[in-house]
Structures are given as C-alpha cells and as structure tokens.
Amino acid sequence: MAVVEASNLVREYRMGTETVRALDGASLTLDGGQFVSVVGPSGAGKSTLLHIIGALDTPTSGTIRVDGTDLTALGDDEASEFRRNRVGFIFQFFNLVPTLTAWENVALPMLLDSRSFTKAKPRAVELLERVGLGARVDHRPAELSGGQMQRVAIARSLIMGPKILLADEPTGNLDSKTGADVLELLAEVAHDEPDRLVLMVTHDNNAAAVCDRIVTVRDGRIDERDA
Ligand SMILES: Nc1ncnc2c1ncn2[C@@H]1O[C@H](COP(=O)(O)OP(=O)(O)OP(=O)(O)O)[C@@H](O)[C@H]1O
C-alpha cells in the first residue's frame, strides 16, 4: 500500500521581492515496508520535501497524501495532531530533552495524551529494549553516547506506532561504525512491519547504499527514474 502519494508538489518561498521555488513539480509514490533514502545536491529541495511529507510545511500547490490522509486539507490543530500521532521524526542532533531520562524521552508523546498515560512507561521500556538500551532506561542524554542518543530518538519515534518515520541526516553526527549500526536499526524498523516506511534524507553515499530504494531530488523535482 502507498504510504506517500505526492503529485506535482510546488513550494515557493517569498524572499523580499524574489520567489524561491524549493519544489518545482515533485511527484513520488512510496510503499511501506521499505527503507528509502532521499539524496541530491545541496539546495535541491530534500528537506522541503521531507517537511511537507511530515506536515511541518504545506505546499504552495500540488497534492500530498500520507498514510491515507490528505495533508493539504488539515488545519493547524489537525496538522499538529497528525505529526504527534502518525509520524515519527528522527533528527541529526537527536532533539532529546536533557532533563528527562531515556524512558521519559521515549514516553513523552504518550505522556502528553491522558488516554495513554499509564501505558507510557511499559511501552517506552519495551521500545528501549528493542533498540538495545534495556540497561539505560534511567540514564539522561548527557550520560549516553551519540549512537545511544540516536537509538533513544528512534525508540521515541516509534512510540505512537506510526506508519512513517522521517529521518533528517540521522547519521550526520555519528562516527562511521556507530552510523552503520543506526542504519541497520532503521532498516530493521522499516522491515519489522509490513507497511512501515522509513524515509531518510542523507548526504552520505554509504547510508544511501544500504537502503531498499534511493530517490534523487534535483532542482525541486524527483528524478523520473525514481518517482
Ligand atoms: N524557509 C525558507 N525560506 C526561504 N527559502 C527557503 C526556505 N527553506 C528552503 N529554502 C530554499 O529552498 C531551496 C531548497 O531548500 P532545501 O533545504 O529543501 O534543500 P536541501 O536539498 O535539503 O539542501 P541541503 O542538502 O543543503 O540541506 C533552497 O534554495 C533554499 O535556500
């Protein structure tokens, strides 16, 4: 089943009197059960594409459906609910809350929802075990290595059970061995469930090489061979 269906996406930014076209008619269909990387030159529109797929930004024109939801039809509150419950985000600098322990960081999205409050800790601990950090649940980010922090962030991205994980340069701040381990984990996460998609923006050719599919963005469009 298609998790992402993007058609003719255009995203323009106004810069004073100039208009920058970050996306210029990008079309793409992505199925679940895959680990997909997005590559291309600097300024090609990769991050803009990822932000639109994650409902962090809206296109100027074009259509975008993610996990069956038409993102262009969402209001601000619906978009933030979509981001919280239906998408997992993984960032280069991990974005963990320094004052919270590993399990509290992972549980945060569930702790914010009164309906799931009591289930939050057992689920967070289970996910930390899944990413190999069962012995680190009470550690704070400063007491963890970079690779361990990224594993916590991956566990957090999974807690609401999203169909899609979006990773922006997830290995950009890790050494090559630690980065390779994180990529292996992301591939496992994509293949764990039949229709989960992990979509990763990367500049690292080794990272792209372990993916099931590589999508190239150039001048705001998806390379035709990749669409
Ligand atoms: N908020 C913004 N305001 C104005 N212009 C923007 C904004 N965001 C992106 N752009 C412009 O849109 C184009 C695409 O940017 P984007 O960040 O999507 O590229 P990228 O492929 O992710 O680049 P990089 O690999 O360097 O991160 C660039 O020319 C950029 O300067």
UniProtKB/TrEMBL annotation:
<dbReference type="GO" id="GO:0005524">
    <property type="term" value="F:ATP binding"/>
</dbReference>
<keyword id="KW-0547">Nucleotide-binding</keyword>
<keyword id="KW-0067">ATP-binding</keyword>
<dbReference type="Pfam" id="PF00005">
    <property type="entry name" value="ABC_tran"/>
</dbReference>
<dbReference type="GO" id="GO:0022857">
    <property type="term" value="F:transmembrane transporter activity"/>
</dbReference>
<protein>
    <submittedName>
        <fullName>ABC transporter ATP-binding protein</fullName>
    </submittedName>
</protein>
<feature type="domain" description="ABC transporter">
    <location>
        <begin position="4"/>
        <end position="227"/>
    </location>
</feature>
<dbReference type="InterPro" id="IPR027417">
    <property type="entry name" value="P-loop_NTPase"/>
</dbReference>
<dbReference type="InterPro" id="IPR003593">
    <property type="entry name" value="AAA+_ATPase"/>
</dbReference>
<dbReference type="InterPro" id="IPR017911">
    <property type="entry name" value="MacB-like_ATP-bd"/>
</dbReference>
<dbReference type="InterPro" id="IPR003439">
    <property type="entry name" value="ABC_transporter-like_ATP-bd"/>
</dbReference>
<dbReference type="InterPro" id="IPR017871">
    <property type="entry name" value="ABC_transporter-like_CS"/>
</dbReference>
<keyword id="KW-0813">Transport</keyword>
<comment type="similarity">
    <text>Belongs to the ABC transporter superfamily.</text>
</comment>
<dbReference type="GO" id="GO:0098796">
    <property type="term" value="C:membrane protein complex"/>
</dbReference>
<dbReference type="GO" id="GO:0016887">
    <property type="term" value="F:ATP hydrolysis activity"/>
</dbReference>
